[in-house]
Amino acid sequence: MTTLIPFAALAPVPWKNGGGSTTEIAIGPPDSGFEDFDWRVSLATIEKDGAFSLFPGVDRTLALVEGHGMTLEIDGEPTLVTDADPVVAFDGSSKVEAKLNRGGSTDFNAMTRSERCYHTFGRRRLSGDSTFVARADVTVLFLAEGDALELRNEGERIGLVRYDAVVLEGGSVWKLEGQGMVYIVDVWYHGDEEDETYYE
């Protein structure tokens, strides 16, 4: 089933460790919490330097959406997150300290519990019409840049504005029309074979 998630209808909540705020975009299973989700995607706001929450057993991907980025010290090793290099993957059990570069940062986060499933993350720059195939068990499409995006197939037409997301049914084929950037999270449960990542 295809599910549109309007960002305007969502509300931020405190981080697991209380050090910032996050807006949960989608989670599986529905209504699960920090300790029992299979997968989760969210948009976080970081306003000050500090530590990330710990998520043992969870694989994480972070991608810069807005702001000047930050330096993440992951288990003592620094990683710079900027427009030039906006994506970093790390283990949820790692000790992560964030130091903002210049002001606050807005970041997209994808998480999967490794004993149950795994994810790949991709970015696609849109310019006009293109085709998109949802190949995973769960595919989340997030409009990170751009004013509007339209998805359509034979039976449905869906409109997104910036920060909206849509969860797509596996195997569905869509025409995308719009300008900007989408972030794509593909989630596979263990035992599934195909693995596809869409990079810019």
From TrEMBL:
Pfam families in the cross-refs: HutD
Top-level taxon of origin: Bacteria
Protein name stated in the entry: HutD family protein
Species, as recorded: Massilia agri
